[in-house]
Amino acid sequence: xxxxxxxxxxxxxxxxxxxxxxxxxxxxxxxxxxxxxxxxxxxxxxxxxxxxxxxxxxxxxxxxxxxxxxxxxxxxxxxxxxxxxxxxxxxxxxxxxxxxxxxxxxxxxxxxxxxxxxxxxxxxxxxxxxxxxxxxxxxxxxxxxxxxxxxxxxxxxxxxxxxxxxxxxxxxxxxxxxxxxxxxxxxxxxxxxxxxxxxxxxxxxxxxxxxxxxxxxxxxxxxxxxxxxxxxxxxxxxxxxxxxxxxxxxxxxxxxxxxxxxxxxxxxxxxxxxxxxxxxxxxxxxxxxxxxxxxxxxxxxxxxxxxx
Length: 308
Known about the structure:
Helix content is 19%, strand content 35%. The protein has 308 residues and is an alpha+beta fold.
Protein backbone atom coordinates (compact mmCIF):
# COMPACT_ATOMS: atom_id res chain seq x y z
CA UNK A 1 0.00 0.00 0.00
CA UNK A 2 1.49 3.34 -1.02
CA UNK A 3 1.70 6.32 1.29
CA UNK A 4 -1.17 8.19 -0.34
CA UNK A 5 -3.97 5.79 -1.10
CA UNK A 6 -7.58 5.33 -0.07
CA UNK A 7 -7.07 1.59 0.40
CA UNK A 8 -7.32 1.74 4.21
CA UNK A 9 -10.94 2.84 3.85
CA UNK A 10 -11.94 0.18 1.33
CA UNK A 11 -10.14 -2.48 3.38
CA UNK A 12 -12.02 -1.33 6.48
CA UNK A 13 -15.45 -1.75 4.86
CA UNK A 14 -14.69 -5.10 3.24
CA UNK A 15 -16.70 -7.45 5.44
CA UNK A 16 -16.52 -11.22 5.76
CA UNK A 17 -19.76 -13.15 6.39
CA UNK A 18 -19.76 -14.98 9.73
CA UNK A 19 -22.03 -17.28 11.70
CA UNK A 20 -24.57 -15.22 13.64
CA UNK A 21 -24.46 -15.77 17.40
CA UNK A 22 -26.98 -13.20 18.66
CA UNK A 23 -29.16 -11.88 15.82
CA UNK A 24 -30.01 -12.64 12.19
CA UNK A 25 -26.81 -11.98 10.22
CA UNK A 26 -23.18 -11.46 11.12
CA UNK A 27 -20.04 -10.09 9.49
CA UNK A 28 -16.50 -9.45 10.65
CA UNK A 29 -14.20 -6.58 9.73
CA UNK A 30 -10.75 -5.44 10.85
CA UNK A 31 -10.03 -2.05 12.42
CA UNK A 32 -7.32 -0.16 10.55
CA UNK A 33 -3.90 0.98 11.83
CA UNK A 34 -3.63 4.30 13.66
CA UNK A 35 -1.07 5.65 16.15
CA UNK A 36 -3.45 5.94 19.12
CA UNK A 37 -4.32 3.46 21.89
CA UNK A 38 -7.73 2.73 20.31
CA UNK A 39 -9.14 2.25 16.83
CA UNK A 40 -10.62 5.11 14.81
CA UNK A 41 -14.35 5.52 15.47
CA UNK A 42 -15.13 6.00 11.78
CA UNK A 43 -14.07 2.39 11.22
CA UNK A 44 -16.97 1.27 13.41
CA UNK A 45 -19.55 3.62 11.86
CA UNK A 46 -18.61 2.72 8.28
CA UNK A 47 -18.34 -1.01 8.99
CA UNK A 48 -21.74 -1.02 10.70
CA UNK A 49 -23.19 0.91 7.77
CA UNK A 50 -21.76 -1.67 5.37
CA UNK A 51 -23.17 -4.54 7.47
CA UNK A 52 -26.61 -2.92 7.57
CA UNK A 53 -26.58 -2.20 3.82
CA UNK A 54 -25.61 -5.80 3.05
CA UNK A 55 -28.72 -6.95 4.92
CA UNK A 56 -31.13 -5.02 2.66
CA UNK A 57 -31.60 -6.50 -0.79
CA UNK A 58 -34.75 -4.82 -2.14
CA UNK A 59 -33.25 -1.55 -3.35
CA UNK A 60 -33.91 0.58 -0.27
CA UNK A 61 -31.13 3.02 0.57
CA UNK A 62 -29.66 3.99 3.91
CA UNK A 63 -31.06 7.32 5.07
CA UNK A 64 -30.10 7.51 8.77
CA UNK A 65 -27.87 6.00 11.46
CA UNK A 66 -27.88 6.62 15.22
CA UNK A 67 -24.85 5.21 17.05
CA UNK A 68 -23.33 4.82 20.51
CA UNK A 69 -19.67 4.06 21.21
CA UNK A 70 -19.51 2.03 24.43
CA UNK A 71 -15.96 0.67 24.60
CA UNK A 72 -12.72 1.36 22.73
CA UNK A 73 -11.93 -1.05 19.90
CA UNK A 74 -8.53 -2.69 19.61
CA UNK A 75 -6.52 -1.80 16.52
CA UNK A 76 -5.94 -4.44 13.85
CA UNK A 77 -8.41 -6.88 15.39
CA UNK A 78 -11.67 -8.30 14.12
CA UNK A 79 -14.96 -6.73 15.16
CA UNK A 80 -18.02 -8.95 14.78
CA UNK A 81 -21.08 -7.05 13.57
CA UNK A 82 -24.39 -8.72 14.35
CA UNK A 83 -27.38 -7.41 12.38
CA UNK A 84 -30.93 -7.70 13.68
CA UNK A 85 -33.65 -7.37 11.03
CA UNK A 86 -36.11 -5.29 13.02
CA UNK A 87 -38.50 -4.33 10.22
CA UNK A 88 -38.98 -4.72 6.49
CA UNK A 89 -41.89 -2.66 5.20
CA UNK A 90 -42.83 -1.49 1.74
CA UNK A 91 -41.43 1.99 2.27
CA UNK A 92 -38.93 1.62 5.11
CA UNK A 93 -36.71 -0.95 6.79
CA UNK A 94 -34.89 -0.84 10.12
CA UNK A 95 -31.79 -2.66 11.34
CA UNK A 96 -29.97 -2.83 14.64
CA UNK A 97 -26.23 -3.46 14.38
CA UNK A 98 -24.02 -4.37 17.34
CA UNK A 99 -20.26 -4.59 17.19
CA UNK A 100 -18.49 -7.09 19.45
CA UNK A 101 -14.83 -7.55 20.26
CA UNK A 102 -13.40 -9.97 22.82
CA UNK A 103 -16.96 -11.11 23.52
CA UNK A 104 -18.14 -7.66 24.66
CA UNK A 105 -20.35 -5.14 22.83
CA UNK A 106 -18.44 -1.97 21.98
CA UNK A 107 -20.70 -0.27 19.44
CA UNK A 108 -24.42 -0.22 18.66
CA UNK A 109 -26.50 1.58 16.07
CA UNK A 110 -29.95 1.72 14.56
CA UNK A 111 -29.98 2.16 10.79
CA UNK A 112 -33.03 3.04 8.71
CA UNK A 113 -33.59 2.51 4.99
CA UNK A 114 -36.09 4.07 2.59
CA UNK A 115 -37.51 3.02 -0.76
CA UNK A 116 -37.90 6.67 -1.79
CA UNK A 117 -40.89 8.26 -3.45
CA UNK A 118 -41.78 11.39 -5.44
CA UNK A 119 -41.94 14.52 -3.31
CA UNK A 120 -40.95 18.13 -2.97
CA UNK A 121 -37.27 18.99 -2.58
CA UNK A 122 -35.54 21.67 -0.51
CA UNK A 123 -31.85 22.37 0.02
CA UNK A 124 -30.90 25.47 2.02
CA UNK A 125 -27.32 25.29 0.79
CA UNK A 126 -24.35 26.81 2.60
CA UNK A 127 -24.39 30.60 3.00
CA UNK A 128 -21.03 32.10 2.12
CA UNK A 129 -19.76 28.99 0.36
CA UNK A 130 -18.78 31.05 -2.68
CA UNK A 131 -16.33 33.01 -0.52
CA UNK A 132 -14.47 29.95 0.78
CA UNK A 133 -11.08 29.23 -0.76
CA UNK A 134 -11.05 26.18 -2.98
CA UNK A 135 -8.99 23.10 -2.14
CA UNK A 136 -6.30 24.00 -4.67
CA UNK A 137 -5.66 27.21 -2.71
CA UNK A 138 -5.04 25.36 0.56
CA UNK A 139 -2.25 23.09 1.83
CA UNK A 140 -2.93 19.42 2.39
CA UNK A 141 -2.03 17.90 5.74
CA UNK A 142 1.32 16.59 4.46
CA UNK A 143 2.34 19.99 3.11
CA UNK A 144 1.21 21.80 6.26
CA UNK A 145 3.03 19.42 8.63
CA UNK A 146 6.19 18.93 6.56
CA UNK A 147 8.43 21.27 8.55
CA UNK A 148 6.44 21.45 11.77
CA UNK A 149 6.94 19.74 15.13
CA UNK A 150 5.54 20.22 18.61
CA UNK A 151 3.27 19.08 21.39
CA UNK A 152 2.52 15.40 21.57
CA UNK A 153 2.94 14.85 17.82
CA UNK A 154 5.20 11.88 17.07
CA UNK A 155 6.63 10.74 13.71
CA UNK A 156 3.86 8.11 13.63
CA UNK A 157 1.06 10.60 14.24
CA UNK A 158 2.58 13.04 11.73
CA UNK A 159 2.64 10.32 9.07
CA UNK A 160 -0.92 9.28 9.92
CA UNK A 161 -2.28 12.84 9.73
CA UNK A 162 -0.37 13.39 6.49
CA UNK A 163 -1.14 10.26 4.53
CA UNK A 164 -2.65 7.45 6.62
CA UNK A 165 -6.33 8.39 6.74
CA UNK A 166 -7.32 7.55 3.13
CA UNK A 167 -8.52 11.12 2.51
CA UNK A 168 -6.80 14.41 1.76
CA UNK A 169 -8.15 17.09 4.15
CA UNK A 170 -7.75 20.84 3.69
CA UNK A 171 -9.00 23.17 6.41
CA UNK A 172 -10.62 26.61 6.40
CA UNK A 173 -9.51 28.72 8.26
CA UNK A 174 -6.64 26.31 9.02
CA UNK A 175 -5.94 22.97 10.74
CA UNK A 176 -5.80 22.35 14.49
CA UNK A 177 -3.01 19.78 14.55
CA UNK A 178 -0.32 21.68 16.50
CA UNK A 179 -2.04 24.99 17.17
CA UNK A 180 -5.36 26.63 16.41
CA UNK A 181 -4.45 27.88 12.94
CA UNK A 182 -6.71 30.80 12.06
CA UNK A 183 -9.46 32.35 14.11
CA UNK A 184 -10.69 30.79 17.37
CA UNK A 185 -14.26 30.57 16.08
CA UNK A 186 -16.97 27.89 16.54
CA UNK A 187 -16.98 26.81 12.91
CA UNK A 188 -14.73 25.52 10.17
CA UNK A 189 -14.90 23.85 6.77
CA UNK A 190 -12.83 20.93 5.53
CA UNK A 191 -12.38 19.95 1.90
CA UNK A 192 -12.07 16.14 1.70
CA UNK A 193 -11.12 13.85 -1.17
CA UNK A 194 -9.80 10.28 -1.31
CA UNK A 195 -6.11 10.11 -2.13
CA UNK A 196 -6.97 8.01 -5.18
CA UNK A 197 -10.11 6.61 -6.78
CA UNK A 198 -12.13 4.42 -4.44
CA UNK A 199 -11.73 0.72 -5.16
CA UNK A 200 -14.67 -1.67 -5.55
CA UNK A 201 -15.78 -3.29 -2.28
CA UNK A 202 -17.08 -6.86 -2.25
CA UNK A 203 -20.72 -6.99 -1.22
CA UNK A 204 -21.41 -3.27 -1.81
CA UNK A 205 -22.51 -1.41 -4.89
CA UNK A 206 -20.47 1.66 -5.80
CA UNK A 207 -23.28 3.86 -4.45
CA UNK A 208 -23.27 1.95 -1.14
CA UNK A 209 -19.47 2.21 -0.96
CA UNK A 210 -19.73 5.97 -1.46
CA UNK A 211 -22.29 6.19 1.35
CA UNK A 212 -19.92 4.22 3.58
CA UNK A 213 -17.13 6.65 2.61
CA UNK A 214 -19.11 9.58 4.05
CA UNK A 215 -19.74 7.58 7.23
CA UNK A 216 -16.03 6.77 7.46
CA UNK A 217 -14.47 10.19 6.89
CA UNK A 218 -17.00 12.20 8.91
CA UNK A 219 -15.54 11.24 12.31
CA UNK A 220 -11.99 12.48 11.74
CA UNK A 221 -12.75 16.18 12.11
CA UNK A 222 -16.28 16.54 13.51
CA UNK A 223 -15.09 17.58 17.00
CA UNK A 224 -12.54 20.06 15.64
CA UNK A 225 -14.84 23.12 15.73
CA UNK A 226 -15.31 22.45 19.46
CA UNK A 227 -11.53 22.21 19.93
CA UNK A 228 -11.08 25.38 17.88
CA UNK A 229 -13.49 27.52 19.88
CA UNK A 230 -11.97 26.24 23.13
CA UNK A 231 -8.45 27.04 21.92
CA UNK A 232 -7.35 23.38 21.92
CA UNK A 233 -5.49 21.35 19.29
CA UNK A 234 -4.79 17.67 18.67
CA UNK A 235 -1.19 17.76 19.93
CA UNK A 236 -2.19 19.53 23.16
CA UNK A 237 -0.50 18.04 26.22
CA UNK A 238 -3.02 16.05 28.27
CA UNK A 239 -5.85 16.21 25.70
CA UNK A 240 -8.02 13.08 25.49
CA UNK A 241 -11.04 12.83 23.19
CA UNK A 242 -13.50 10.06 22.42
CA UNK A 243 -16.69 9.74 20.39
CA UNK A 244 -19.74 9.13 22.61
CA UNK A 245 -22.72 9.14 20.29
CA UNK A 246 -23.22 9.93 16.65
CA UNK A 247 -26.11 10.54 14.28
CA UNK A 248 -26.01 10.80 10.51
CA UNK A 249 -28.65 11.44 7.86
CA UNK A 250 -28.05 10.72 4.17
CA UNK A 251 -30.26 13.11 2.20
CA UNK A 252 -28.95 12.50 -1.31
CA UNK A 253 -26.48 10.06 -2.79
CA UNK A 254 -23.33 11.58 -4.30
CA UNK A 255 -23.47 11.73 -8.09
CA UNK A 256 -21.65 8.76 -9.70
CA UNK A 257 -17.94 9.45 -9.35
CA UNK A 258 -18.43 12.51 -7.10
CA UNK A 259 -17.09 10.71 -4.02
CA UNK A 260 -13.73 10.38 -5.83
CA UNK A 261 -13.50 14.18 -6.00
CA UNK A 262 -13.62 17.04 -3.52
CA UNK A 263 -16.51 17.35 -1.08
CA UNK A 264 -16.98 20.22 1.36
CA UNK A 265 -17.61 19.33 5.00
CA UNK A 266 -18.95 22.42 6.85
CA UNK A 267 -18.87 22.09 10.64
CA UNK A 268 -20.19 23.98 13.65
CA UNK A 269 -19.58 23.73 17.41
CA UNK A 270 -22.97 23.68 19.11
CA UNK A 271 -22.13 23.20 22.81
CA UNK A 272 -19.30 22.41 25.23
CA UNK A 273 -19.84 21.65 28.90
CA UNK A 274 -18.92 19.13 31.59
CA UNK A 275 -16.16 17.51 29.56
CA UNK A 276 -18.34 16.97 26.50
CA UNK A 277 -18.70 18.80 23.22
CA UNK A 278 -21.43 18.70 20.57
CA UNK A 279 -20.76 19.49 16.92
CA UNK A 280 -22.70 19.26 13.69
CA UNK A 281 -21.54 19.03 10.11
CA UNK A 282 -22.91 18.98 6.57
CA UNK A 283 -21.41 17.45 3.43
CA UNK A 284 -21.80 19.28 0.13
CA UNK A 285 -20.97 18.31 -3.42
CA UNK A 286 -18.90 20.80 -5.44
CA UNK A 287 -22.12 22.06 -7.07
CA UNK A 288 -23.45 22.98 -3.61
CA UNK A 289 -25.83 20.04 -3.21
CA UNK A 290 -26.33 19.06 0.44
CA UNK A 291 -25.56 15.33 0.68
CA UNK A 292 -25.55 14.42 4.37
CA UNK A 293 -25.77 15.81 7.91
CA UNK A 294 -23.75 14.66 10.95
CA UNK A 295 -24.20 15.39 14.67
CA UNK A 296 -21.79 14.02 17.25
CA UNK A 297 -21.17 14.39 20.96
CA UNK A 298 -17.70 13.58 22.19
CA UNK A 299 -15.69 13.54 25.36
CA UNK A 300 -13.13 16.36 25.47
CA UNK A 301 -10.91 15.99 28.50
CA UNK A 302 -7.69 17.78 29.35
CA UNK A 303 -5.76 16.42 32.31
CA UNK A 304 -4.51 18.75 35.01
CA UNK A 305 -0.93 17.87 34.04
CA UNK A 306 -1.57 19.21 30.57
CA UNK A 307 -3.02 22.56 31.68
CA UNK A 308 -0.82 25.55 31.14
